[in-house]
Amino acid sequence: MCANVFFFIFTFAKNEPALTLFGIGLTGQGVMKNHKKHNSSEKPRGKLLPRGGLAMRYTRFFILAFLLVFSIAFYYTFKFTRRILDEDAHKRATEITDLAVSRISSLLKPAEQVPYTLSLALDNERPNYSMILGLAREFVLDDTVVFGSAMAFEPYMHDKKHYRYCPYVFESKNKIEIKDLSSAGYDYFSKDWYRIPKLLQKPVWSEPYYDKGGGDTLMCTYSVPFYHQVKGQSVFAGVITMDISLGKFKEILRSAKVSETGVSYLLSHNGKLITPIDDRFVNMDIRELILRKRGGAVDSVFEKMLRGEKIFQEMNDLQYVKVPSWISSAPVPHTNWIFAVTFPTKELHAGLNEFFRTLAVIFCISLLAMAVLTVLITNKFISPISRLVEAAHRIGQGDFQTALPVYRSKDEISELTNAFSGMKEELVQYIQHLQEATVAREKIESELSVAHDIQMGMLPRNFPVRDDWELAASLDPAKAVGGDLYDFYFLDDNHLFIAIGDVAGKGVPASLFMVVAKTLFRSRITLHMPLNQIMYEINKEICKDNPNQMFITFIAGIVDLENATLTYCNAGHNPPFLIRSHGNIEKLSELHGIPLGIFEHAVFSSGTILLLPGDTLLLYTDGVTEAINSSGAFYTVERMLGVIRGNPDLCPAEMLVRLKESVRDFMKGTDQADDITLLALHSKLTPGKENKPSDMMRIRLANQLGELGKLVAMLEQVSEVWNIPAKVTMELNLVLEELFTNIVFYAFDDGHEHEIIFTFERTAPGTIHIQIEDDGKPFNLLEKETGVAPDLPLEERKVGGLGIHFVKKLVNEISYERKGKKNVVLLIRKY
Amino acid sequence: MIIGITGRLDTINYGILEKRLLELIDQNQIRILVNCSRMDYVSSSGLRILLMALKRINMAKGRFVLCSLQENIREIFEISGFTTIFEIYPNEDEALRVF
Predict the structure, then answer these.
(1) From the candidates A569, A603, A802, A804, which should be mutated to test the interface with B, based on the most B CB atoms within 10 A?
(2) Both A590 and A474 in a single domain?
(3) Of A276, A364, A469, B78, which one has the greatest count of Cβ atoms within 10 A?
(4) How many domains are there within chain A?
């Protein structure tokens, strides 16, 4: 703001009214800004808002805009007016110059004409000298500027007696005298005023000079050559002169003023001053006199001037004249003189500047007045807003009944008031709803906690203590109730059902769906139907009444506790891990179908694996692997496996505890996003049982086709342990499948369950014996017709019998024996 | 019509293939190519089904063709003499040219 003030004073002094105006405006703006700052530092709580705020801002911008517009207009007006003045000055200067020039001209005219007339008179055979002289005398007496006239003759031209003859008529003390210049031995033949006209044969004006020979004044001579007629020819006879007193011209010049401080000059065509104000300066080159420096544009202006062009120019480099001045010049006709006049521009502009300065001051005052008025008026418009603000504060403190200010005019502010009022009403209602909702929610939450207890109660807790198997399971829901489930129970003494599942979703809907699924499984799981078919049936049920299209990923498995096989079906769930006794962790990545509840006609398959002593099976849900910590990182399968590897030989319960701890540590305070469920089943190492690969392995199967999976699993195991090549394994697979299938179909017809026992023995490296024993009716498979001959045409092929063909072809030896109540088949295969 | 068999075709699951083939034949889709590139194992039950389908389709004047048998499986077919009964092609492109 101080800068503004300084700027303003500076421009004022410099006579730049437009900028001054601007400076004043900026200052004023600064004042207003400061005022506002003071005001807004007050705390408005409970008090009226400062009147300054909106009104001040609005006024500031408005005034600034107005200032800007007006400053520009002002500036251009100023410039325009100045230009008009300058043009006017130009016109005046030109007029004066022309006037002066004509006056000088008129003064000189006679001086030119007379010698001419006289020369004509002389141009004769026998001129009348005395008469001519008499004429000259009259002329000098009459004329103002001419003070002398001489008639200089060529040698002996006047008469035979005189070599030199030069009568000179001149004024002296108001009388006319005649003198003969030649008498004093004055050699006029060599003088310029004689010589040059003689040479040029035309009249000539001289430069100004002091001539002691004639009058003792500053003078200028006009010389005209004259001629005599001698024997019919014009011969140069002499020169008539007119001597002009330059003092007279001084008078003329003095009156030719354009301005008070202007100066006029009469110059010769060489730039020499003819009539300076100060006689000391006569004959000085005007350029030396006037110009501060030479060269360039300045010189060319003077060139033009001295050539006789009319000039009107502003010059800045004049000596003795410190300020910029105009110079106007014109040539004097008939002579080679130049008339010039100078006058300073300042004088010209003084009046204009004065005028505009006054105008600026008036304007600023009125601007200030307008600013004040604007502030007051704006405040009046804004006060309703302040009242609304007060009302808002009261409402904020809880007084919903407070009255809103009444506002009559129909404009934006009344709309604001109306909107405000509407908002207040809605606020009251909203709060009321909120209170009701909170009460309702609390009620629900207490019910949810009961539901949680019920749900947790549904989960099986205790697995009986056994010396061959151990199982642990746990479920930690994310919310009060969860969508994960696990289950385990004994189907009979030998078979254990295990399951794990994850409903898509969380909370009450998922948990209800979970209960439905769990109940379905409990009711449908049986040993009398293959697992994949059970899954098919259950899936159909789930799909039927599923309006919300929920689905559940699921693993259902049946463990044959004696054979240590697991037949399982993975319906879209996370692949379980089999932790072998020697530490390797195998991923059971086979998928047997899509999650339940999606597609009514989905079909499922199943898989069978062998659980060796010391193995642990781990089932889990993605609440474990996809647990998120605060940086958005997942817990991941790798981390889970890492915990297991890092803690070998844990029993299932301990493993679960360790895993859950690890997850909790990982999440470190972030909320649990999904249910965390785990189930671990461990096959204990019983004393006496070896876990080294032995040379004999056995499996007992029930007489159901579904058991085939176990047989295949067993065969795989055997192959792995005894390094049987894959091709041989496949062939054995075919053989065993045939034998088993046939026994199941043909060996029993009492509808009871029977056992079929497969025993695998490695009798020598590269030789495997397989014995198949069943307690069905006597039945020798090998007696069946194969019905296959390689070249038997299609039509005669029987559909059955192919299997036996394989059996015979793919083994090295096969034999059948009935031992007591049992069928015993023995086959040998070398590899 | 191209069918692919993936995994095992044995006594347990042959029913699925049977059902599908019967469906197709009923719908008069009697130009069928079975792509066996992913069939790891086939037992007599599976072969039986293929044979049955072949007979039925031939009766209906259609075509039933196999392709891309795995090495081991091809041997099984040879042992059972099926290579003389079935049209077997090494890959799908060649098999399709037949139709």
Answers:
(1) A802
(2) yes
(3) A276
(4) 3
